[in-house]
Amino acid sequence: MRIGMLTGGGDCPGLNAVIRAVTKSLIRQCGAEVIGIEDGFLGLIERRVRPLGWDEVGGILATGGTILGTSNTASPFAWRGRDVSAEVVAYQRELGLDALVTIGGDGTMTMAARLGEAGGVPMVGVPKTIDNDIAGCERSFGFDTAVATVTEALERVETTGQSHGRVMIVETMGRYAGWIALEAGLAGAADVILLPEIDFDVERVAAVCRERHARRRATLICIAEGAKPVGGALTVERTVAGSPDPIRLGGVAHLLREQLQPRVDAEVRATVLGHVQRGGSPTPFDRVLATQYGNEAAHLLRRGQFGRMVTLQDGRLASVPLASVAGQNRRVPLDHPLLVCAREIGVCLGEAG
Ligand code: F6P
């Protein structure tokens, strides 16, 4: 077997652990040759690949980022105004690939599946995202690391906030799902957690800040980038042309700061954590999960189970047809046990009324 492998879309901690596990498992279990494709689909368009062997993937388990590089704007179907998918398919054949391992999000996998339909080699997908929002997958690698980073940030911001008696707002990533803010908010003892799934009432949040200020307590607010006020809109930081989802959220912490400041006596400060959540070494949990995902992807390849994505369901490794997850988004259900728990211990979720 000759297998190509690429990482596409935004990076996340644990990608190298997957690359390592896929390569080692394929070499050891069936003597396959593994070809690394550089910078996602850009490498297929620009014909940039390199062999991956035991030595190439040695020592990368704990390294952040991706040794292959990635791109979130290179589509073979619309490359500089042209459809170059036929050339890309021809290149896959030239390389003698039997299949492709695509480590990416929804956009990357949909593209790989489309290439397969256009005559390209079949694919097996490994889901990646710090957002933990992939349908049919209860835990994506990278999420645990992001939660650990945000938790540490919350703890650091809390001590300085307490010294000054301030209201401190920390904004997390997560796109349209509040998983990072919810778990890190609970782990970092946030007083207020604001999620995309529950529009927040600014008066309600201000009341919490005032009540705490009266007791000489700082207030720690953890807000997801996709949260919005009741009746308000998403805060868009920029749009990225050519990206499968061109909208980049960011800055809602500043909007909340502006709305809160006139309503409270304490000084209100905002911190947007940004890409610090995506970089660095994966946690031990993510290293193990990513290794299992990589090994499971190799199993699917050996069994010829193509067009499927590796997942975790009820704590067990599984796989689902790509078509069943494409274009969907796994958000926090309003009856999720962590939301119920947060409410019951007195965390404000910004709910109106
Ligand atoms: O999907 C992962 C993610 O980090 C989101 O949480 C965030 O909204 C987005 O990617 C940022 O993308 P970029 O790195 O392209 O700005």
Rounded to an integer in angstroms, the radius of gyration calculated over CA atoms is 22 Å
Give the total of beta strands. 13
Element pattern in H and E:
EHEHEHEHEHEHEHEEEHEHEEH
**β-sheet strand percentage:** 15-25%
Descriptive key words:
353 residues, alpha/beta, seven-stranded mixed sheet, elongated, binds 6-O-phosphono-beta-D-fructofuranose, ATP-binding
Protein model, in words:
With 353 residues, this protein is α/β, with parallel strands linked by helices. 35% of the residues lie in helices and 18% in strands. The protein has a 7-stranded mixed sheet, with helices on both faces. A 4-stranded parallel sheet has the order 7-8-6-11, sandwiched between helices. It is elongated and about 70 Å long. The model has no long low-confidence stretch (mean pLDDT 96). Bound molecules: 6-O-phosphono-beta-D-fructofuranose.
List the helices and strands and how they pair.
Blueprint lengths: L1 E6 L7 H16 L2 E5 L3 H6 L2 E4 L32 H10 L4 E6 L1 H12 L5 E5 L15 H22 L2 E6 L6 H9 L4 E3 L7 H13 L4 E6 L11 E4 L7 E3 L2 H9 L7 E5 L11 H20 L4 E6 L2 E6 L15 H8 L9
Parallel strand pairs: 1-2, 1-4, 4-5, 5-12, 6-8, 6-11, 7-8
Antiparallel strand pairs: 2-3, 9-10, 12-13
Helix pairs in contact: 1-9, 5-6
